[in-house]
Amino acid sequence: MFLSRLLVVTALLLLSGCEKKQNSLQDELEVQLMLYGAHPLLLTVKDGVIEGARKYDSGNKISFHLNDANFQFQEAVFQSRQVSRKGASALVAFGTPSIKAAISNSNPDVKVFFGASSDPVSIGVANSNDPDLWKEKGFDGKDNVYGLVTNFDYVGMASLISNVLPKKESNEECVRIGYPMSDGEPNSVLAYDKLKFQLEKEGFCLISSAVSSPVDVPLAIRSLISKGVSAIQVGPDNTVSGSIGAVVSIAHNANLPVFTSDSASISKGADAAYAVDFYMLGIALGEKVAQVVLDKEVNEESRIDIFSNSKLYISKQFLSSHLNSDQAGLLKGMGLEEGSIILVDKAK
């Protein structure tokens, strides 16, 4: 009799333990981070997302899991399909190719968040890439899609270039700027068109060189150098930015400065950028993720917003060697207020 009761009690305890474990697993909210590649900009946004989500996730219910497509679109598609079928609460995609893959290939019941894309047309949330129309008409897209659209500030970028580089000589057609570009990344193509138009007003020519994968980047930079460019400009291009180390090494060996569209690349050796603070973008996106996943009150009209707070980022070494540390002169030339410049130390 005693043995029978002992067995019953033991069974109940085991059952109770299993239920607690099952409830614990059910309480955990799985968020899959879909990284297009290990580029500094995307990693910065990713870190910001995790930090931002903690603001609303005081109970640590959200668990983050990282997926890296290694700059391969088909891998991004495969990963999006796989993780959405395994019961993820949400996918957070970084970089336009991964965003497209996540939106098009994930389960409709899974929330999809995106950041670090300045081309809302290609990811299906707008009908125009004109920022003025974004503000006027807002965004569209599927009901399960949330995110932040960034605006590549080509006017500010052109102003930086024109205030840093020497003007064209009277016998020159223009001062050439090299632009390595992946045709498969709409962000990069769009930025090229807009920046080219703006730079032509300042007496500069933007010369492109196509890349299909990271292994093409060194060849593209050498090709641009052979065409007599005075600097290298890296746009919002994941393929090129993922190889920023090679870009910087080859360009600097030819005594050419490297400008970028993201601040994270400066610590990797680039010289200057006019860009949004992508860590703060990540924090804002992380807050949005946590609010939605944890069923907090969310304004459906702001499922997709514009994130824009561009600043001038410049390496201390470049400011000293090329501009005689004249911060005030550079800010005045660009029409920026004091405090709009952030000095960055390059990696040793």
From TrEMBL:
InterPro entries named in the record: ABC_transpt-TYRBP-like, Peripla_BP_I
Domain of life of the organism encoding this protein: Bacteria
Protein name in UniProt: Putative ABC transport system substrate-binding protein
Organism of origin: Pseudoalteromonas peptidolytica F12-50-A1
